[in-house]
Design a protein that fits this description.
Layout: E1 2-9, E2 12-18, E3 23-30, H1 33-41, E4 48-50, H2 54-67, H3 85-94, E5 103-104, H4 105-112, H5 118-126, E6 139-140, H6 153-162, H7 166-170
Parallel strand pairs: 1-4, 5-6
Antiparallel strand pairs: 1-2, 2-3
Length: 174
């Protein structure tokens, strides 16, 4: 059984779910509560119960603080078990990219096996079930362009603006 909460943020409706091991999915801002819930259920295995827990409430508070610009790190337990071994390795590498920093797909690839894995890294980054907390938005193309983002490029731009890094891309520095 997985528990979940859906809540309104200043950016839209969001959701967070947890397994017995930790937070396992974040739904990025959506236009409605129903869309946020649907995003949580996407790729979900098992039953999703709308039941708050102290861990979910703590994760919600941390995400809201981050979006308000008052938090730069997260300290809730994470459950990354739904990914492949390679995806989990990429996601753990993303956790090392600090707030206000940008790294390229090649940078990640070098740390998980070699530059030749940049495309596979892009796929793993795109499959990240915990955006914001596992900061996939901080990964950009080697040529200082945005690259992709599962929540859409407008959301990626907002996240990078919040962290003060979008200007680095506009000036060609990564």
């Amino acid at each position: 059984m997985r528990r979940a909460i859906v809540f309104k943020s200043r950016w839209g409706w969001m959701g967070i779910s947890e397994s017995g091991k930790g937070i396992d999915r974040i739904a990025l801002p959506q236009t409605s509560k129903q869309r946020a819930l649907a995003a949580l259920r996407e790729q979900a295995s098992g039953v999703l119960v709308m039941e708050p827990s102290s861990q979910l409430e703590q994760a919600q508070a941390q995400v809201l603080d981050y979006l308000a610009g008052t938090r730069q790190t997260f300290d809730v337990p994470l459950d990354l078990s739904q990914g492949t071994a390679f995806q989990r390795q990429v996601w753990r590498t993303l956790l090392r990219v600090a707030y206000g920093k940008l790294r390229s797909y090649q940078w990640v690839a070098t740390r998980v096996g070699g530059r030749q894995y940049a495309r596979a890294v892009g796929n793993a980054v795109g499959a990240n079930p915990l955006p914001i907390v596992v900061p996939c938005h901080r990964i950009v193309a080697h040529d200082a362009t945005l690259g992709g983002f599962s929540g859409g490029l407008p959301t990626k731009r907002k996240l990078l603006t919040l962290e003060g890094t979008l200007v680095q891309l506009q000036h060609g520095r990564t």
